[in-house]
Amino acid sequence: MVCIAAFIILIVVGIFVAFISIFKRDLGKKYLKVLKKSWHCFTRHLTFRKCDTSFQDDVKTALLKKVVLKNPKAVKPLSITIEVASILIVIITAWSLVEGIKAGLALWTLGTCNVSHPASCALGAESCSIDEENLNWFSEWGEIFGAIPDRLKNWNAADYLVEPAETINELSENYEKKDNLPPALDIMDPGCTVCLSSFRNQLKDTNFINNHAVYIMLYVIKTDDGPKFKNSELLTNYYYALLLQNTETLKTSEKSPYNGLSLKLISRLYTENNSENQNWQYLFDNVYDNETAEKTIKDWLKEWKLTDNQIKAIAEKTKSETVKTHIAKIRAKVESEIKPKGIPTMLYDGKKHLGLYK
């Protein structure tokens, strides 16, 4: 184990030696000579063969030569200590490599290097995380390997749409109306600040917005204490109440007073500010209680020309089985089939895209 540990240490030290050898070339030559000897011994140990050089003894001699002269009795316990320390170095290095591979695979497959707690991964895609508790080390590996087929598969956004759904294309000033655009599915939480940035970026991207029919699907991130963002559920209920009411009205009438209001709701939340220049999403997430939030939504509906009776009907519809069933279908689709670790998540061009749309 001593020569394996020594090889690991030499590799780490090599970073500094490479820099110093720019000024002291002799040091670099000496280092390479020792490294070659170490590598030879290391590779033989990896193939379960005995090291045919004296490298291991050379290492021990270099570490113990001063002790031999001053305190010979201490040589044996120190030699044992060196062996134990070598074993620990090898174990820690092997564990670090395994954890590094695990984090890399998780980052590639799931968009986060920490499977159980995505938010704790600084290298992950910028997103509002969906944390999972009580995953042990083996379960995390299972999640990673289970996600590899998803990473390699062809994602057709149309297969994951829950109808009725609507596109956000017409909210963009850059949109040039086209027929038969390939679908893109945008999964967002109304309270997620990364979703706000992603939404704005999509509307500004002329190439993206003019080459995809971008469907929006709202998904409320939940924790053990309820929704992650306190008014997300209320906003989602109103969004789908307006969308479903409009769909039902258009079945029996050529015009609908609810037409486009669900899009206006999400657009105002993400892109507009109040009279004091405060972003609406910030207010719903951090300032408004549930009662104030609902009153604000009703004020918007009144501004958008709905009558008091129509607003009352929409408020009642938010609590209806129709809306609950529709949202439950979306949750099932997202959690059982798409399985994101964070929001926003997008499906387009045959791939699943994790985190902020840049």
- N-to-C terminal Cα separation, in Å? 48 Å
Low-confidence stretches: none
Helix percent reads 55-70%
Q: What is the arithmetic mean of pLDDT?
A: 84
- For the record, the CATH class of the largest domain is Alpha Beta
- Summarize the main sheet: 5 strands, mixed
CATH homology-level superfamily of the largest domain: Glutaredoxin
Shape assignment: elongated
Number of helices: 13
Structural category is alpha+beta
CATH topology group of the largest domain: Glutaredoxin
Strand order in the sheet with the most strands: 2-4-3-8-9
Q: Which architecture of the largest domain per CATH?
A: 3-Layer(aba) Sandwich
Give the strand tally.
Answer: 9
The number of domains is 3
What Rg do the Cα atoms give?
30 Å
Instruction: Give the helices and strands as they follow along the chain.
Output: HHHHEHEEHHEEEHHHHHHEEE
- As a percent range, the share of strand residues is 5-15%
Give your account of this protein's structure.
The protein has three domains: 2-99, no CATH class; 108-150, no CATH class; 155-354, Glutaredoxin. It is built from 13 helices and nine strands. The chain has helices at 2-20, 25-46, 55-70, 75-110, 137-152, 193-204, 206-209, 232-252, 261-271, 280-286, 290-303, 308-317, 321-338, and strands at residues 128-129, 166-167, 183-188, 213-218, 222-223, 226-227, 342-343, 345-348, 351-354. A hairpin with a 2-residue loop joins strand 8 (345-348) and strand 9. Helix 8 packs antiparallel against helix 9 (261-271). The chain is elongated. The relative contact order is 0.10. The model has no long low-confidence stretch (mean pLDDT 84).
